[in-house]
Structures are given as structure tokens and as C-alpha cells.
Amino acid sequence: MEDNEKLIDQGPLAQSVSDQIHFEFKRDFLVKPLDPIKVKKEFSKPVPNGEATTDKNDVTAVDYDQVETEVKEVDSDYREGVVLKVPFEYSAMKDNDSFPSMKIMVGDVIVFRARSLNYFDLLKDTVLVSSYDIICKKTND
Questions:
Q1: Beta strands at 38-48 and 64-75: parallel, antiparallel or unpaired
Q2: Topology at the third CATH level for domain 11-37+77-137
């Protein structure tokens, strides 16, 4: 996200969608994933010195002395998403003052591990995200 781009408040829209969802979740957050985040990563691959040669034991091999580095744009290991439903267990823990936790509410934009995508096929384009897979919550600062 660019510095001059501000995060749009997703709260009212997410709450109106949440009110139409007739499911309550026990353990996982119901999230509408946003577009994948693209990042640039370096990949290294060996460069052959020449043709394959055969040694005295009749083994054919290619020597690799150099490495070539290539930069590719790939999907990040993390995704952003808008919270549509907060699970019951999280709400119960959040209300307990002795349990410190990040306050996540409907409409918040969270960042979670992409490998943890667990599609909830009863609602189109939604995923279930464990609280353990949530990395952070985006702020308007």
C-alpha cells in the first residue's frame, strides 16, 4: 500500500454483510480475503560451466561454479482480508479483562498467513481464519 493511500473504513459495509450471515462461528474468524499481495523475491539458480563431462568412473556430470540471481514478482506468504464474523470463543476471551488480546471487530482489515486459507464454501468468496494465523490488524494511522 502506498504512503498516500488511506485505508477505507470497512466497518459499516462489513457490519451490514455480517448481519445477513446467519451463522455464528465457534473458533475461526469469517473473512473476505482481499486481492493477493505481490512481493519481489530473489531466486538463485546454478549456471553450468559448459557441457557434461564423463569422469574415469564413467559418470557423466555438469560442473556448476556460478550462480545466477533472478528477481520475480510472486504472491506474498500473507493475505489481507476484511473480518465478517468474530468467533464466539474469541468474543468470550476478549470480554475477560485478565486475558490481554488485540481487539478485532467486524470490519477490521487483518493480515493472515496465506497458507492457512480454509475456504468456507457455504458463503461465496469467504475463508475461515484461525486466531493463531492472524499476524496483525491494519490501522488508519
A1: antiparallel
A2: 10 Kd Chaperonin, Protein Cpn10; Chain O (2.30.33)
From 35, 36, 37, 26, select the one nearest 120 (Cα to Cα). Answer: 26
Q: Where are the domains of the chain?
A: 11-37+77-137, 40-73
Determine the distance from the C-alpha atom of residue 96 to the mean position of all C-alpha atoms in its chain, rounded to a whole number.
Answer: 28
Residue 133 sits at φ, ψ, to 5 deg, of -90, -5
- Summarised one tens digit per residue, pLDDT across range 35-79 is 999 999 999 888 888 788 888 888 888 888 888 899 999 999 999
Which residues sit opposite 134 in a β-bridge? 112
Strand extents, DSSP E, the chain = 29-33, 38-48, 53-54, 60-61, 64-75, 78-85, 109-113, 118-119, 127-129, 134-137
Cell of 65: 561454479
* Residue 4 to residue 138: CA distance in whole angstroms: 15
